[in-house]
Amino acid sequence: MKKGIIGKKIGMTQIFDEQGRVIPVTVVEAGPCAVTQKKTVENDGYASVQLGFGDMKAEKVNKPMKGHFDKAGTAPKKTLREFRFDDVDSYNVGDLVKADIFAAGDKIDVTAVSKGKGYAGVIKRWNFHRLKESHGTGPITRMGGSNGCNSDPSRVFPGKKMAGHLGAEQVTVQNLTVVKVDVENNLIAIKGAVPGPNGGIVVIRDSVKAAKA
Predict the structure, then answer these.
(1) SS (H, E, C) 79-145
(2) How far apart are CA 187 and CA 8, in angstroms?
(3) How confident is the model at residue 116 (pLDDT cuts 50, 70, 90)?
């Protein structure tokens, strides 16, 4: 991985390209992120950089985290994420990572926690087909149907698609395209939709499958 940053999803809008075509984009406030820790192979067994995003009041930070931020010489941050960059040596504790690390046309992967939709049935959760609505089926047209045989194996296999909690899980959308970068306001416009609600935290990285896309 060469580049990565933490951001906050602002919302969706649309912009026009040079040919006048409408492009739906998601606007993300990306950074500035402070380097709050640097891990090395000698000390930690692997090399990585910890970035912090979003300032918070010092009185809301517990003592261990206050010491962590004081050691880094940065203001307390709400969100911390770790990145295994290829060029970790080029980063130093206290450096700022801004939106200008990305440019229009870059392929990226966006990770965030998806919107929580509560308890959902199999039709909404797994896109099941409805049962027939006549010939004695009864008022169960949106149920999941059979869960398996009762004689053998006499149980429901793990992983069976059933009703349950939908959303509120970490999701990564791959191979999205950066349409525009506003360096002054630390904004990145990404083509299409990204997971999570407006105001949610997102992590933007280089696309791991860009070469195969």
Answers:
(1) EEEEECCCCHHHCCCCCEECHHHCCCCCEEEEEEECCCCEEECHHHHHCCCCCCCCCCCCCCCCCCC
(2) 10
(3) very high
CA–CA gap between residue 168 and residue 160 (Å, rounded)? 19
- CA angle 41–47–49, rounded 5-degree value: 140
The domains found in the chain, sorted by start residue, are: 4-116+171-212 (2.40.30.10), 117-166 (4.10.960.10)
CB contact burial 96-132 (16+ within 10 A = b; e otherwise) = ebebbbbeeebbbbbbbbbeeeeeeebeebeebeeee
For 17-50, the pLDDT digits (tens) are: 888 899 999 999 997 999 999 988 888 899 899 9
Q: Dihedral sign for Cα 123, 197, 51, 67, please.
A: negative
Q: Rounded to two decimals, what is the model's pTM?
A: 0.83
